[in-house]
Structure formats: structure tokens, C-alpha cells
Input
Amino acid sequence: MNALIDTKPSGAANERTNSGHDDRRPMTFRSVLFPDGATAVDQSAAEPGFFRDLNLDQIVAAITKGREEYDLTAFFHAPLDQVDHVAYRQEVMRDLEDAALISRVKSFAESMRTVRAYLAKVEQLTHLAEKQRWFVDAAELYCDAVADLVDYLSQASVASRGLWQLRQYAAEYAASDEFRSRRDEAKQVKAELATIRYRLHILQHRVEMLPYDGCDDYSKEVEGLFARFRQGDVEPYTFASTRSDSLNKVELMILDRVVQKYPEVFARLDAFFHEHQDFQDGLIADFDRQVQFYVAYLDYIGRFRSAGLRFCYPRVSHDSKETHCSGSFDLALAGKLAGEEGAIVANDFDMSGDERMVVVTGPNQGGKTTFARAFGQAHYLASLGCPVPGRRARFLLCDRIFTHFERKEEIADLSGKLKEDLARIAAILDEATPRSLVVVNEIFSSTSLRDAIVLSRKIAERLNERDLLCVWVTFVDELAAHGDQTVSMVSTVEPERPEERTYRIIRRPADGLAYAMSVAHKHGLTRNQIDERLRS
Amino acid sequence: MPWNEAALTEDLGLGPLFETMAQGDPLVHSVARVAILTGVGDDIDAIRYRQDVLYDCLDNPGVVRAMYAIVVAAMERETDTGRSSLARNPDWVLRWASTSIEALLGSLEQLRRVAESSQSDFSSAGVSGLMSSLIRDLDAGYCSSVRDHLQRLKFRDGIEIGVSLGQGNGSSDHVLLDPPIRGPVSWLTGLIERFAGRRHSVDSFTLDPADEVGVKALASLRDQGLSLAAQALGEAADHMRSFLGDLHKELAFYVGCLNLHEQLTRIGAPISMPQPSPPDEPRLAFDGLCDPALALTLDRRIVGNDVQADGMGLILVTGANQGGKSTFLRSVGLAQMLMQAGMFVSAESFSSSIADGLSTHFRREEDAGMESGKFDDELRRMRDIVDHVAPGAVLLLNESFAATNEREGSEVAQQIMSALLDWRVRILCVTHFYELAQSFRDRAGDDVLFLQAEREEDGKRSFKMIEGEPLRTSFGEDLYDEVFRAENPDDGQDAEDESTRSVSEPDDGAAEHAADSSGRASVPQVGRR
Output
């Protein structure tokens, strides 16, 4: 078995240090999602509080759509808290970026899906010869699927610890006597069943079984008769099968007679059924489910990639707050605008040195909230071990994400709302650790500007004291000039056509006049324009 | 259908042309519409092939109409009732398809008889090919063999199917075997056998007819066996039907051509078979070219135009309002489409290189009032055209960007047109923008031809296009004078013009266009090449 030969990891796909290679040898395969295999995910974990504000609920719903049987949502609700665990997943994900490898994994998954469907039939049926046939079909399919996967992995270039260990494990499993003899036996039984052929004569209510002597296909003859009229294709006749998955009364009567005629063949089928009840391996079944985390995510971002959007594997750090991402965009928005060419505008963000707080100001509908969401999403997706929108990125591996978004439904009670805003901020400050991320979107809009300025400054000071990473979307320009920790970013408009938003958010001092001036320009009322008109 | 089907239909006024071709037959209408809008592509041989068939049809209109009548009768018998609802059950399909094939075979035999009696009158590859295949493929032996099989497909002695074990060890890979012929078994023999139990061996069983579940299950098994034969027979019926359906459509096209020819002949419009040339080299030359749609609307012969524009990438038409510029543009576009559909055109002669697509960008009136919106709309339509245009395409521009001022409109149009000309798109442009015309002046005679709506000494329009440099005004004053003088009915000629105008296009003076030009009274005939 060549599966034991260590295929050298390809350099390009492997960003880890060399020591990683040696580490993985003694380890045995447990899970493709967690390096030590011990980390359990609470399957009933509720959606994190910030999901809705960041539209991560939409993203996760879109990723897991159509894969409900794998129950993947829990994995997407459980961020990782160790840099190495993120690396473990990034390695696997990078391996699976290989089109050939992922398509093999998908066909393996497809086979496993069918195996489960067959076994469900076995559960439900009572006629032995019928039930056992589904069983042997399931067993054969399972063995073939595992063998195919092992075959492929043995010559595939695999760099991740997760898949490397899986390859070793699966190869050993497939080489075991138990597995091999089971597979051979299944094939033998099926080959014998395949030799059975017979002829049925049906006249009114009478059925006669006759030996099959290889007569001609009369429908072919009919087809040939009319061949001269054949030009182009007509819509084929498909008859709604009146047949269900299970055999009907008459088919069972026929099958009973077939069993009587070929007792040895059906005795072997019966023996196989009893000897191989538990033919599935637990870890292989787990792999089948867990690998869908990667497959689902890659399929999801594949749509955006083919529309020209870029994704990258972020560098994550446990303590550095250097934050960088070029070409970031809101994945949920991209999902909504899918197919509209050039509809998505990518933005960059950068925080270095003491910079902790991005303050986003500028005209409304200019993409500010989208920018804040993209920032939060990127951090969260990075903590799942997933690639994020952008060309290059590095992030702090946050322990928690807090969001404070305007709640429209409570606007009626203004003083109550201000109080509630402050209470929510206080709660965040209470719970946040220095490794937390805070996303604030338009608070204090219900109060006077003066109040908003004062309150915002105070809150900003508190956030800065805690050294928290923060994105703050606000109409309070003054906040953007609040100390060295603040980075000012502004949503922009096209000077000639201020009504068309660019959705570009750029790093520059807040300037409330930019928008007004561009409107003035449109109407020919800037100073220069007026000056020129007067001169002519 | 081309992406700009709606625009072409509206801008070139194709509707009335389709009506004339149809003469009330909806199939002819839809076939003519598809044929003219889609053309035969850039295949000169395909055009010549159709032209040859068309010559044949014009020589033997009676035979063509007779064949069409046979096919129409056959298709009327064939209702679509069955397919969707019957397709669910093989037994039904077998029965329905048998009946259908029987009837279709009858019609095909009728067509064969027509072919046998008139094959010698047709020389085109298309028609004689069809006729010989009818004669060859529907010989008496074949027809009786089909009828024989239709009998066997009634399965009076039951069916036999070969099977093997499949899903759940049920029967699979069903093969329908030759229908068994057991000879006549009297009901008495059957009864005796049943009582004697002779046929109740291990290998056979008989269901109690009262056993509904069993009977249904057996029917389902039987259906499985019959389904392939039912598919084959159903498809055979469909193929025969689609053969006749295709013939129906093809004949409909030529019947449409015959109808159009009759109408044009009646009003004395010129008719000729156009000369297509390869798309590599821009060619366009014609004599006496008319807009047949307009002529038919006015029900009389109209002035034709002569142009020699071989080698020209751009034809810029400027000049007097109401001078027939739009009609001229339409007549060229229409002739190009008719040529590429393999049809005759209304001209003394017409030759042009094949166009890889035809687009129109005509001024639209509907959204007047929303100034910026309208210019937006014009740009949007132009972008659609640019998205679809390919080298070798023909683009007709009629007062494009008139929604904005001359300077802006000229600049926009000039940039677009220059770019497209570089991409070997042939452009016919009608404009009153002097600036725009002026910007192409350097290229005059090189690959740009300037035409003007002719204006005679007394200011009257001849509705003819003549070669000439762009003029700065569009003679709006003339028009003003004419319109206001017409209100004072001391000039009979103008008054008549005014009244006819109301039945055609008010922006174009198309009615005046109909003024007879002397000396072209002879009824045109399409001659063999």
C-alpha cells in the first residue's frame, strides 16, 4: 500500500514552520476540524448575539443551505480561541482548494449520502430478499467509496495535518483484512445476483416466468422502423414511474419464486447481511460530516471568486493588534448582489502602532455600515479558520465580538432610548476583555448633537482605556479626531455625481463639507465655477 | 430571435410587412417574423439556396399552395391534447401514437402523390430534394409494413419482457420482446386450462381480478415493459409530426413570400432578388430601392432611391426635414434583412455584403418630457447595442442623441461612431447635427459617403437621396412655410399632401414620399439569375 509513503507537502500550500511536519507523525487521526480531536462543539450552541447585527446569520444560513443533514451550524457558531487551531483548519482548507481533491471529497460525500439512504430502506423493509439486497448494495457502495478516497489520497499532494492524518488512518483501515474481505464478499454476492435473468409473459391477470433466451428488443425494432423520420430530438417520453422504491405485491410474488429457484445465491446474501451489520467506521463517518464544514464554505465563496472577488487566508495573532485587510467586502451583501457585475466595492483597513479605533463618517448610504459589518465579519470568519474577503489580511484572534447597532423599533421613547444605548455600551465595557472587538453603528442619533459629541467622547475614552479594537460608525465628525488611537475613515462620493455613491471608504480626516461641496459643484455653484462664470 | 427583436420590429416597421405576408394566417405570420428577424446567418450559400427555392415557388404557386393545404389539414387534425396528460401512461401513448401515425402516414402519402405528379416542374435543390425523399421514403412497401407493426403493437396475445434483478432484487433492465403470437386460444380452452390447473405451475400465477392491489401492481410491471416501446412509438409519432410541422413552417414561409409578391405586384412596386456578397468587404449598392412596408400601407408605388456605396463604412444622411430620410434608412435596413432571410427585395436591384447582425438606434418619442431620463435612456440603448455589436454588423442610427443639445450629442455620437467604425461596423446615420456630420468630413469619399435629402429649387422635396456635403440647416423654415401655407387651402397639391400625411408617419413626411415619380410604371418581374 503506497498510502504509507509520506507525500511531501507542497511548499506553496504550506505556511507552517517545518517543525509542524514532525509533530504530526505520532498523532493519530481524530478530527479534521480540531487538531487534538478532543475539543467538543456544543451541538446546541445558540447563535452568538452579534450574528444578526453583522449579518453573519445570513452568511451562515447561505453556507449551510442544502446541507442540513450534516448539522453544520454548530461549527459555525463556535469560534476557535487558539492560533494553532486556526492554522489547523486553514491548512485543511488550503488543501481542499485543490479542485481535484475537493471533487473527490464531494463524490465521497455523495456516496455516503446514498449509503445512508440505502440503510434507511433496510430499516424500513420486511421482505428478506428485498431488504438484504439494499444492505449489500449499501455495503458495497461504502467500501468502494472508502477505497476510492484512499486511492486518491495516496497520490494526492496533501500538506495539512488533518488530511495527512486522515490519509494514514484511512489507508490502514482500507488495508485491513476485515475491510478487504467484506468488500470482496459484497462484490461476490452481487455478481451472483447479476447472473439471474428470466422472461415474463403477461396476459391479462396471468404472469408466467420463462427462461430468458436472449430475444431481440422489440422496441428497438419499432424505433428502427421509424428511423427515417428522425431528425433532431423530440422531447423524450418519461412515464411517471408507478413503481415505488419498494417492491409491490406482484414483484414480491415473482421474487419469492426467484428465491426458490436459486436457493444458494440467496443463502449467501443472507449470510452477508448477518455478518456485516456494522460495516461503517466511526471516524470515517465523522470525517464525512466534518469535512462538509470546509466544502460548504469553499462552495459558498466559490461563487464570489468566479465573479472576480478575492479571498485570502488571514494571519491571526493571539496578542498583536496590528490589523490589516486589503480588498475587504461585506460577504452578506455580496451574497445579495450576486451576479451584478462590479456591484461590490472592496475597501481596505489598516491599524498599526497604537491605533485601535476606526471612526467612519461621511454621507449616508455611502457604505459605512457595510464597512463596519465587513470588519466584524472578517474577524469572526478568521476565528473559524476560514479564508476571508480580501487580498491580504492579518487580524487579532478575538475572544469576543460585541456589536451595538441602532434599534429602530424603540425610537418612540427618546429618553428611554438614550438610556438604553448607554446601558448596552456599559454592558459591553463590562464584559469586554482586551482581546475583544467592538462594532458600534450610529448610536446617540436620538439625542442632541452636543450631547452626542460629549457622550461619544466619553465612551471613546473608556474604550481606549481598555485598549479595545473598535469600529465606530457615526455622524459625529469630532470623534474622528480623537487622539492617536483613532483612525478616521470617510465614505466618499463622486464629485461630478454626488447622487451616485461610490461605497468607497477611505482613510482621511473627517470633512463634513465634502458632500455639500460636491452637490454645489453639480449645480455650478462652487467658488471657482461662480468665479469663472463671472469672468466670461 | 435577435436580442433587439422589439427595436427592429418597431424601428423598421416590420409589423405591416408580416401582416401582408400572413394574409390572416397566424402561422405564416410567426414564421415570416422569425425568418426575417433571424435570417440565415452569414452563409451566402444558404441565401442562394432559399433564393432558388423562391424562384421555384414563384413559378409554381399552385403546387406550393396545394402542398401547404395538405400539411395544414394534417396539422389541424393533430391536436396537442395528448402529450402532456397521456404521456403518463405507456398504454395510452401506444394507442394515441398508433392513431396519430396512421393519420400522418395518410397525409404523407398525399404529399407523395403531389410530388410524383409535379416533381419535373421544380429545379431547386430544396424542393426537388424534398420531393424525391417523399417519393423514396414513402414507398408502398414501407407504408404497409408500418401498418402491420401498428397491428402487432396492440399486443392481443399479451406481452413478453426480459428482466434481471435490480434494486431490492426487483425486476430491472426490462426489455420488451417480440409480441407473442400464440394462435387463437378460445375462451373455452382457457377455461379448461384454468380448471385443470395445467398452467398453474410454480412458474406462473394468476391474480384474482378482484384483487385491486395485485392488479394495480401487475399493471405497473406491465407498464415497465411497455414503456420503451411506448417511448419509441410516441417519439416516432412526434418525429413524423415534427417532420410535417417543419414542412408546415417552411411552406408557410414561401406561402408568405408568394403573398407578399402578389401584393407588391398588384401595386406595381419593383421586385428583385438581391445579390449578397461576403461580409469582409463593405458593399452596398442599389437602384430604385423602396420601403415595401410603406408602399403597402399607402397602397401605391413610391419613389425609389439609388445609391452606390461600395467600400463605405459610414453613410451619413443629412438634410431637409420631412425629406424621407427615415424612410430611406428603413428601406435599407429592411432590404438587408429580407436579403439575409433569402427573400426578394423591393428594388430594381440591390446588392450588399452580409451583415453580422443589424441594430437600430432610433429616436424615441415616448418618454419626451423627462429630459435627463431620455438622454439616459438613449445612452442605455446604445450601450446595449455596443454590448451586442460585432465586426461586420450594420448599425442604423436615426437622430441618435437628439435628446440632448447638438454639441454634446455630436460629441457623444462621434466618439461612439468612430470607435465602432474602427471595429468594422457599417453605419448608416441620419442626423441633423451639423457638428457630427462635420467631424467626419475628412473621411468623405474615403470610407464615408455623405447623402442629403434632395431639395429642389423651389424648396420642394423629391424624397430622393443625393450625394452631398452636410448643410448647416435642415430647412426648418421651409417646413414652417409649407405647413402654414397648407392651412391656407389655395394650393391643392400641398393640401393633398397634408391629408395623406395623417395616415403615415407625421415626423417623416412619408406620405409625400409616395408622390409618384414618373416613368416607372411597368410591373416588375423577378427574373431568373
Observations:
- The longest helix of chain A spans residues 128-155.
- Chain A touches chain B through 65 residues (CB under 8 Å).
